[in-house]
């Protein structure tokens, strides 16, 4: 615009008849032409640079370059179009619509610009407007089937099922019965609660390809989802006439029979499906897996589940998943020897699945076989060095074997890996507390227990062990008493926790209170057989000047298996020895 006004101004000077002005005017015209050429060259350079950036996938740079171009030539529809496409790519829906509208307004006859405008409306969820654009394109290009299809899709998204259905019917009249089109129509009909009409659409596909089983599945699913069970069952029976061992039909009919309490038909169809090697093992496993939860409420599910897993193994004898599932079934039923056998078989077929190794380690921990658990966990940590639970079980086994430094190393490695569940982190810190205590590293022991309590603030066992160790050392007795008392609030009927609290009170020289609590503990039969509780009672009695009775309980402790040198001296010298 500035160039235009400069020329007009110079023309006025010419009218005044100045000859020198004529030479000046010519000079400025040449400058104007030169500037326009420079600007045009600059614009072309920006355009091609933007094109290169776009091809390299650097959309942000391309957007900047196209925007710079528009400062020089804002009425270029192609650049507005390119910006709209790029903003769609970078998920900036608002800007995409701005530039798509400009492109379409500048060149309304370009159908690509119209398509981009529809896309921009769609990403802004203006589905009505997008459908309207495709309606215009359909009118201009009546032979383009995609435009009519897109119109129907967008009308469906705009929640106008009747209008969308009309568009799809119009398209069907042009192209005939097409699977994708029928699929879209039946969805709309179901949305409008027109079940029979939706089924009729699928029947068109069946009539066209009567041997295509997928269409029968789709028809049965429509009936099933809308409680037309009789119609669904009829379709599944039709499938079995074409494919007598079809597992999907057998499973569906088994389900219907179960709802009707027809146990014979249910079990016949179910076992026939499971015996079929062509029925995916993954689907079989998915079907059986809920039995693991149901077994807790219905013991008959164990027998049924084991029968099904037996059929899976028979149909898939080389698949580790079959044996792993059967192992899970036995493990849930606490039949750990059978579980172990099946887990080992699964691992012999496929030793890459950590979940099976985990289950086997869990079995060994339940069997109270720390030597076997340590050997197994050593193997697991070698195969899966980044798995938290391998080191956890290795730490447990080492602790049980009194290999406390090894336990500490394994448990700390588990913490370094740091991907364990919170419940196991609490166990690790608690076990570290025990292990550090056993090695005399009391500061680390206390720190581990405090961390365990942060993770499990209502764990009575952790409180009891921590407070007892503090009492043995005679340190932080107030903290020990606080924790021990809280453990008793959580589990008030535990004689073990009563003994711990009594012993803490004893270390605080609160002998009368200590006697009350240890006598509460001794009211339980298991405490009367525990040599530690009996010895503690003797210690308390001695400090209450009941020497004869104290010696009597020390002797009882010895008779129950206590064998410390200090206990022998207590009895022999008839005095308390700390």
UniProtKB/TrEMBL annotation:
Among its keywords, does the record have Flavoprotein? no
Q: Is Isomerase among the key words of this record?
A: no
What SMART domains does UniProt report for this protein, alphabetically? TPR (SM00028)
PROSITE patterns linked to this entry: PROKAR_LIPOPROTEIN (PS51257), TPR (PS50005)
Start and end residues of the TPR repeats are: 213-246, 320-353, 426-459
* UniProt keyword terms in alphabetical order: TPR repeat
* Highest taxon of source: Bacteria
Protein's name in the database: Tetratricopeptide repeat-containing protein
Please tell me the species this chain comes from: Chitinophaga arvensicola
Output the lineage of the source organism.
Bacteria, Pseudomonadati, Bacteroidota, Chitinophagia, Chitinophagales
